[in-house]
Amino acid sequence: QSVLTQPPSVSGAPGQRVTISCTGSSSNIGAGNDVHWYQQLPGTVPKLLISGNNNRPSGVPDRFSGSKSGTSASLAITGLQAEDEADYYCQSFDSSLSGWVFGGGTKVTVL
Amino acid sequence: EVQVLESGGGLVQPGGSLRLSCAASGFSFNINAMSWVRQAPGKGLEWVSGISGSGDSTYYADFVKGRFTISRDNSRNTLYLQMNSLRAEDTAVYYCAKLRGLVTRNYYFDYWGQGTLVTVSS
Lengths: 111, 122
Prior knowledge:
Strand content of chain B: over 45%
Number of strands of chain A: 9
Low-confidence stretches of chain A: none
Number of strands of chain B: 11
Oligomer: heterodimer
Structural class of chain A: mainly beta
Number of helices of chain A: 0
Shape of chain B: globular
Order of helices and strands of chain B: EEEEEEEEEEE
Mean pLDDT of chain A: 97
Number of helices of chain B: 0
Strand content of chain A: 35-45%
Largest sheet of chain B: 7 strands, mixed
Distance between the termini of chain A: 28 Å
Order of helices and strands of chain A: EEEEEEEEE
Helix content of chain B: under 10%
């Protein structure tokens, strides 16, 4: 069981907006530690999508955005496209475990 | 261009040992923290271990403490993971990843290698 909790799957039609939640606790997200997001397309290496809660690295479309509040964070994808079908992971640092932690991952399906 | 390239994976029997290597280039290796992250077949990402740029600070996930040792040779721009007492559940693709951030608790993985497969089976 992952320290950060994500829904196993979300889906949406092309053009729609979907959100992925990432729920932590007072020892990670709630401790003020940043949340980061990764995209893993089928058969590929994970790629950084969002850093520092809501910062997009160069080359990431502005359709992707992140937010954080309390012990949770969210990734939003607006204008969903077929190429967005992938697994998405949130990540933070757990101060009690003294280590980095990932969510279990969310599979996004474009209907 | 930042590159990290893992090697050393393979088939090993339960209880055996293996040493993974990660050759890095394209950035100042000696001032960047590095990490290992694994992914079991069909499963999610799981952080394994991390090390500071100087090598003075090391971090381990509970499930590898006492069995795995992370180290680095800054003169060779190489990261290592010594894995002992391997178990079937350690079977996974092991990724080498560069860490970035201002403080440890806000570090994230900005570059990933292609991974090396470790299979623990008799």
